[in-house]
Amino acid sequence: MSKPDDSTRSGPMAAIAVSTRAAGLRGDVTVPGDKSISHRALIMGALSVGETSITGLLTGEDVLHTARAIAAFGAKLEDSAGPDGKPVYTVHGRGIGGLSAPTDVLDMGNSGTCARLISGLLSAYPFTSFLTGDESLRRRPMERIIEPLSSTGAKFITAEGGRLPMTIVGTSIPIPLTYDNSIASAQVKSAVLLAGLHAPGITTVTEPRTSRDHTERMFRHFGVDVDIVQEKGEGEGAYKVSIVGQPELKGCPVCVPGDPSSAAFLVVAALIVPGSHLMIRNVGTNPIRTGLFTTLREMGADLAFVNSRSESGEPVADIEVKSSSLKGVSVPAARVPSMIDEYPILAIAASLADGVTRMEGLGELRFKESDRLTTMEKNLTACGISASVTEDVLTVRGKGAKRKGAVTIPVKFDHRIAMSFLVLGMVGGQSIAIDDSSIIRTSFPGFIPLMNALGASIKTDDGYVMS
């Protein structure tokens, strides 16, 4: 698998990008593969016997860190062109018991998903591993996975505050857990379930409500015995998932759909830029991921799913969206798990809506790539938009504001903050600049050229992301 060179990384090589008013966005496009599913496809391929062929894999920086990690465990990766000319990535798996000890420190980059899922995996092997990450990731808490994984028999040594860098001393025979998680967290759930794959017996995780279920769906696709009990309807009430450990997994094809979290930026841009009409093909529509689209429809968005279907155990559809007049709404805390990564771009939509949008239950946003609650409030205010945070509630008073001059936004190593404010720059008379466009490549390589091809006007100073 190809690897980016140092020029694609954020930090000293950061490139300023400036977004100015767009006349209208029009086109028929695809977005990069789903980041969450891409991580899991690589991991499951490494744990399987035989070959796993993956189409649609996201090759952003976050996923490449997972690819490098499984290669360090002895799983061979190859890339080739499929019959349609598109890339196919093949993982030559080692089986559940066949992964080997990495010979060097594993760098998780900016990816919390990579760090937490790989930690769950490594906790179940009888060797010692060392994990680190970039400046942003080293500030993010790991205690939420350390607590349950320690109960399997693994040991963890961390930096102050339960943070990376971290040493993991795995166990040869993990103890199967019954873990009652107080929050809905797909990363915690997945870490425990990955450890449970190696345990002799049944591992169970319960949550107060359903978090992203890509791990469960991927397990079933690879032949794991998965049992799910949902207290109420799908996505509502207490959720319990159990797996039977020590299965034999066989490699199989995986088709990764387009990432709805990436599609969100195109959708909101089309809604707020007058004269826009986009068709976004092959987007994942897992109901645990579509909270933003539900919210936008409540706000009055002209947005439809067409050609709905299922691929590799995941629901998929094409999304048609047209510019719309939006109104403010209240977004309940119960919707957070289904749109946890989409609040920055929702706040942009809310700033152009008629009325007040109140987003509740956002405490988890303080532990993302940046403190997204504080960062969004400060940056929206800098753009002349009325926004406030009270505890875990973000309130945005809509209809935007006439910016008195150009604004430069500090993105704080956060790709979603970066893309959100480039979208806002497409509306209004004054430009918006971001101080680091290179961080966008962690999840959406080619975002700026794609947006420019659709009608946006975004310029950068590094030559890499120009159309």
What are its keywords?
about 475 residues; alpha/beta; globular; four-stranded mixed β-sheet; about 25% strand; UDP-n-acetylglucosamine1-carboxyvinyl-transferase, Chain; disordered N terminus; 12 helices; about 25% helix
What would your notes on this structure say?
- With 467 residues, the chain is α/β, with parallel strands linked by helices.
- It has 12 helices and 24 strands.
- The protein has helices spanning 35-47, 61-72, 112-122, 143-150, 186-196, 214-221, 260-272, 291-298, 343-351, 372-382, 415-424, 447-454; strands at residues 17-20, 26-30, 51-55, 76-81, 87-92, 106-107, 128-132, 155-159, 163-169, 178-180, 202-207, 226-230, 239-244, 254-255, 277-284, 302-311, 314-322, 330-331, 356-359, 386-390, 393-397, 407-409, 432-434, 457-460.
- It has a 4-stranded mixed sheet, covered by helices on one side. Strands 2-15-17-16 form a 4-stranded mixed sheet.
- The two termini are 24 Å apart.
- The relative contact order is 0.15.
- The model is unreliable at 2-12 (pLDDT under 50).
Topology of this structure?
Elements: E1 17-20, E2 26-30, H1 35-47, E3 51-55, H2 61-72, E4 76-81, E5 87-92, E6 106-107, H3 112-122, E7 128-132, H4 143-150, E8 155-159, E9 163-169, E10 178-180, H5 186-196, E11 202-207, H6 214-221, E12 226-230, E13 239-244, E14 254-255, H7 260-272, E15 277-284, H8 291-298, E16 302-311, E17 314-322, E18 330-331, H9 343-351, E19 356-359, H10 372-382, E20 386-390, E21 393-397, E22 407-409, H11 415-424, E23 432-434, H12 447-454, E24 457-460
Parallel strand pairs: 2-15, 3-14, 6-7, 10-11, 18-19, 22-23
Antiparallel strand pairs: 1-23, 1-24, 3-5, 4-5, 7-9, 8-9, 11-13, 12-13, 15-17, 16-17, 19-21, 20-21
